[in-house]
Structure formats: structure tokens, C-alpha cells
């Protein structure tokens, strides 16, 4: 797709602080943090910013929806119909 600058909005200040830290996270016990650190090493610029849950209801809804998924990653090409009313 050619994306080189990615902004990731997260509702947890603690997670944003951890992910924006300068230290290497490769040995972190949480596999998700390790995977994010692996992705950070690619040739792109990733910025993690805090956004309040109320400020991004659609992302909160998608996060809840993905919790029921059997896979580690969930990608949508189009938003689910249930979310269109809050976009």
C-alpha cells in the first residue's frame, strides 16, 4: 500500500508511554508488545498517541468486536454495518 507514516490511537496512557519509550521492547514478556516492537523496526514511522475512549467510539467498538475473534489480527476492508451510524 505504500504507507510510510502511521498514527496509532490508543486509549491507554500507560500503553502509549510504553510503546513510545526509547528502550528496546523485544524481550518484553507480553507477545503483543514484542510484535509491536518488531513492526516498529520496519521502514516506516509509527507514532502512538492517546485518545480518550469517548473520543473514538468507532475504534472502541471495533476493538470489542475483535475480542471475539479466533485470530491474532483482525483487518477490515470496509467497516462493519453496525458501526456506520457512529462514523
TrEMBL record:
Q: Which GO terms describe its molecular function?
A: nucleic acid binding; RNA-DNA hybrid ribonuclease activity
Q: What are the RNase H type-1 domain coordinates in residue numbering?
A: 2-65
Which SUPFAM superfamilies does its entry note?
Ribonuclease H-like
The domain of life is Eukaryota
InterPro entries noted in UniProt: RNase_H-like, RNase_H-like_dom_plant, RNaseH-like_sf, RNaseH_domain, RNaseH_sf
Q: PANTHER family, alphabetically?
A: OS05G0353850 PROTEIN, POLYNUCLEOTIDYL TRANSFERASE, RIBONUCLEASE H-LIKE SUPERFAMILY PROTEIN
Name assigned to this protein: RNase H type-1 domain-containing protein
Q: Which organism is it from?
A: Arachis hypogaea
Amino acid at each position: 500500500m505504500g504507507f510510510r507514516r502511521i498514527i496509532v490511537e490508543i486509549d491507554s496512557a500507560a500503553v502509549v508511554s510504553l510503546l513510545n519509550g526509547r528502550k528496546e521492547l523485544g524481550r518484553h514478556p507480553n507477545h503483543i508488545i514484542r510484535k509491536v516492537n518488531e513492526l516498529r523496526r520496519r521502514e516506516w514511522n509509527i507514532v502512538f498517541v492517546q485518545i480518550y475512549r469517548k473520543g473514538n467510539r468507532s475504534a472502541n467498538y471495533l476493538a470489542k468486536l475483535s475480542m471475539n475473534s479466533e485470530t491474532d489480527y483482525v483487518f477490515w476492508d470496509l467497516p462493519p454495518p453496525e458501526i456506520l451510524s457512529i462514523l
